[in-house]
Amino acid sequence: MVDVSDKAVTSRIATAAAWIKMSPETLAHVTAGTAKKGDVLGIARIAGIQAAKKTSDLIPLCHPLPITKVAVDLTPDANLPGVRIETTVKTTGQTGVEMEALSAASVAALTVYDMLKAVQKDMEIGGIKVTLKDGGKSGRFEA
């Protein structure tokens, strides 16, 4: 792990995005709430939050961080068609939360896939990226 002990404790935020493409018929199950496994967006939101909190357990050299906020927003998009995912993670610490935001977005997308794979197996996950990082020595990054 990188030694962050000399870094200043600052407020830090990161946002990330992802999407999962599916057929309009599969998306209809999401919007109508008719998926056999239950509330696709609600369960994916919880999975994303859990992933952010467990990032240091998943990514070997990540520091465990005292996360102060995790938000996972999943929005059905008929133009995709599919679901767009945006995550926000905040902390006050000595290192950033980009990996936590990326983990949240990735696991939320994987959970949507899991919830709907009985309906459609060829869904596509993509667009996983950091869209904002602020705080710390390197300052602000915005995609």
From TrEMBL:
A GO MF label: cyclic pyranopterin monophosphate synthase activity
NCBIfam families tied to this protein: moaC, PRK09364.1
Catalytic activities: (8S)-3',8-cyclo-7,8-dihydroguanosine 5'-triphosphate = cyclic pyranopterin phosphate + diphosphate
InterPro entries: MoaC, MoaC_bact/euk, MoaC_sf, MoCo_biosynth_MoaA/MoaC, Mopterin_CF_biosynth-C_dom
GO process terms (BP): Mo-molybdopterin cofactor biosynthetic process
Pathways per UniProt: Cofactor biosynthesis; molybdopterin biosynthesis
Job of this protein: Catalyzes the conversion of (8S)-3',8-cyclo-7,8-dihydroguanosine 5'-triphosphate to cyclic pyranopterin monophosphate (cPMP).
Species this chain originates from: Octadecabacter temperatus
Gene designation per UniProt: moaC
Keywords, sorted A to Z: Lyase, Molybdenum cofactor biosynthesis
EC number annotated for this UniProt entry: 4.6.1.17
Coiled-coil regions, chain positions: none
Every Molybdopterin cofactor biosynthesis C (MoaC) domain range: 1-136
Protein name: cyclic pyranopterin monophosphate synthase
Pfam family of the protein (one): MoaC
Domain of life: Bacteria
